[in-house]
Specification:
By secondary structure, this protein is mainly beta. It has a single domain (2-124), classed as Lipocalin, CATH 2.40.128. The chain contains one helix and eight strands, in the order H-E-E-E-E-E-E-E-E. It has an eight-stranded antiparallel beta barrel with strand order 1-2-3-4-5-6-7-8. Residues 29-124 form the DUF2147 domain. This is DUF2147 domain-containing protein. It comes from Methylocystis parvus. Pfam families: DUF2147.
Length: 126
Amino acid sequence: MRKVVREVSLSLLFTLAGVGCALAGDPTGVWLREGGKATVRILPCGGALCGTVASVRDPDSQAKVGQRVFYGMTPSGDDKWFGRAFNPDDGKTYSGAMTLSGDHLTTAGCVLGGLICKSVGWSRMR
């Protein structure tokens, strides 16, 4: 378990650090979750960014469409945003992070001050 936590933490750290030199990008738009099971729409809201479930592949998960899953995401350096992430599967809210690299977005939900994080990759929809 410690090895997994360490690998996830290091992966997130390197992902966040690796984009520090890039010019700030724009994460607004529609994003397809890796595996294709959902899309999320990220838009400005109240001076920050918010993300709402736009579609889901599973017919039994249609109630999740329209749920806000990222909110209060404010810039924290080039191509990085921090705020809150809601997991509709467990109903819990976590510290959240978004990192943009071209047409790839990585989101993460973290607990214990960022010690344990779970990240998900997204591809920009055209």
